[in-house]
């Protein structure tokens, strides 16, 4: 009798779980398609011929795909490869400089009793709220006094200012997941404190270091347009975002060539993310699993 009374309840629970799974998957796919739609439209427009982009209603795919827009974009903006290389150098520089400073800072916060630690953590959290446009004037004054205007170093240093707070917070969280006894064992074996960090602790949090490095690269890449408006004047040092702006004129916009250049520009961060996606997922989930 007990078994017969439980069966309808178990069946209802299974149906409820099944429907919850269906709704969850439907919402996930809908949200993903919503996010990917602009990227798809950009890539499709890059493959369309000039007349086709003005069709009404617009076509969802390229009826006669062509790669001519990828050739024409170099004719309209000959410096486009230079702008792309500059963006890669700025993003890589921001990533390396952020890790160089954030790693020892985060290790210190996680291993030592720092006076005013709560205030430091609050300051790092509060610093994440500043958008680059809010600090362009102070950054311009500082770089001018240092004689760094119109240099690669100015873009790298300015970009790192906005990635350092969150990089330090994330890395300190990851370092706290590594037991202190491992450091102490390395010190007993003759390692110095920096040696314990580099030889023992860093290999254990390597996925987290990769995740933070990619975060700094992507953030540094996305902030280049605003920073370059005040820090860069030479056309040869402009990032790709400034290069894309050259497809705009007073009376028209070269949409097919602009979308082709945008597709190429977006391909670098996407390819980098896909290449190290496994390490990013491991890094972002390490603290949650071990904590």
Question: Please, could you describe this protein's structure?
Answer:
It is found in: Cell membrane. Residues 84-276 form the ABC transmembrane type-1 domain. InterPro entries: BP-dep_ABC_trans_perm, MetI-like, MetI-like_sf. With 291 residues, the chain is an all-alpha fold. The chain contains 13 helices and no strands. The protein has helices at residues 2-46, 68-76, 80-111, 117-127, 136-146, 152-176, 180-188, 193-204, 206-222, 224-231, 240-245, 255-275, 277-290. The longest helix is centred in the N-terminal third of the chain and has 45 residues, at 2-46. The two termini are 45 Å apart. The model has no long low-confidence stretch (mean pLDDT 86).
Explain the layout of strands and helices.
Layout: H1 2-46, H2 68-76, H3 80-111, H4 117-127, H5 136-146, H6 152-176, H7 180-188, H8 193-204, H9 206-222, H10 224-231, H11 240-245, H12 255-275, H13 277-290
Helix pairs in contact: 1-12, 2-12, 3-6, 3-9, 4-6, 5-10, 6-9, 6-10, 7-8, 9-13
Radius of gyration: 25 Å
SS-based class: mainly alpha
The portion of residues forming beta strands comes to: under 5%
- Average per-residue pLDDT, rounded, comes to 86
Principal-axes geometry comes out as flat
Helix count? Answer: 13
Helix content: over 70%
Order of helices and strands: HHHHHHHHHHHHH
Q: Report the biggest beta sheet as strand number plus sense, adding barrel if it closes.
A: none
- Total number of beta strands: 0
Low-confidence stretches: none
Distance between the termini: 45 Å
Summarize this structure as a short list of keywords or feature phrases.
291 residues; mainly alpha; 13 helices; 0% strand
């Amino acid at each position: 009798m007990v078994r017969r009374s439980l069966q309808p309840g178990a069946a209802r629970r299974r149906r409820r779980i099944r429907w919850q799974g269906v709704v969850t998957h439907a919402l996930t796919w809908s949200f993903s398609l919503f996010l990917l739609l602009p990227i798809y439209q950009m890539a499709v427009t890059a493959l369309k011929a000039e007349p086709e982009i003005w069709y009404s209603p617009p076509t969802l795919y390229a009826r006669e795909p062509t790669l001519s827009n990828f050739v024409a974009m170099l004719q309209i903006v000959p410096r486009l490869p230079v702008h792309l290389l500059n963006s890669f150098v700025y993003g890589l520089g921001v990533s390396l400089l952020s890790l160089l400073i954030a790693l020892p800072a985060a290790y210190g916060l996680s291993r030592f009793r720092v006076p005013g630690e709560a205030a430091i953590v609050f300051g790092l959290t509060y610093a994440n709220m500043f958008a680059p446009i809010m600090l362009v004037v102070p950054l311009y004054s500082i770089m001018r006094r240092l004689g760094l205007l119109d240099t690669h170093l100015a873009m790298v240093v300015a970009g790192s200012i906005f990635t350092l707070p969150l990089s330090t917070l994330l890395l300190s969280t990851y370092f706290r997941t590594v037991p202190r006894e491992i450091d102490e064992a390395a010190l007993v074996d003759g390692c110095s404190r920096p040696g314990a960090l580099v030889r023992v602790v860093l290999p254990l949090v390597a996925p987290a270091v990769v995740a933070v490095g990619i975060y700094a690269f992507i953030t540094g890449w996305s902030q280049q347009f605003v920073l370059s408006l005040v820090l860069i004047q030479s056309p040869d040092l402009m990032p790709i975002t400034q290069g894309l702006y050259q497809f705009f004129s007073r009376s028209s916009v070269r949409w097919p060539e602009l979308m082709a250049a945008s597709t190429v520009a977006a391909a670098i961060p996407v390819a980098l993310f896909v290449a190290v996606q496994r390490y990013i997922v491991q890094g972002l989930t390490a603290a949650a699993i071990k904590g």
